[in-house]
Design brief:
Layout lengths: L1 E7 L1 H4 L6 H10 L5 E8 L3 H14 L2 E5 L10 H9 L12 H12 L2
Parallel strand pairs: 1-2, 1-3
Helix pairs in contact: 2-5, 3-4
Amino acid sequence: MKSAILAIGDELTCGYRLDTNSQAISRHLTTLPTEVTLHLTVGDDMAAIQHALRVPLDVADILIITGGLGPTEDDLTRQAVAAYFGIGGRRRGAGPHPGALCSSATADAGE
């Protein structure tokens, strides 16, 4: 099984912040029966996010998306993913919030 990580955020593409989430997620994925085959980073742009979804979905069985989930208007991940898959932007179900998964992986990476 192959997996890919899509990191989203202008702060990543502009070099203001280092993408430690993708690193931490990759390290955790190595403990599972999956091979990380792609890391991709795009800025906070609706069209760029939707375009970037195509690439990993073509080459991987699992796609993990991190970033762009904050409260500011430039955080468009939810809307872009919902539009790409043709679903509503509201969260359904009782699963963990996507941001919580990223925070947990980053916190564990320092161990």
